[in-house]
Amino acid sequence: MLEEPLDKAVVYLDAEKFHSTWLGNKAIYRTRMAMRDGGHLIILAPGVCRFGEDDAIDLLIRKFGYRTTPETMENLKNSFELKENLSAAAHLIHGSSEGRFRITYCPGGLSKEEVEGVGYDFSDLEAMRARYDPEVLRDGWNLVEGERVFFVSNPAIGLWANRARFEARDDAPVER
Question: Whole-model pTM?
Answer without folding.
Answer: 0.93
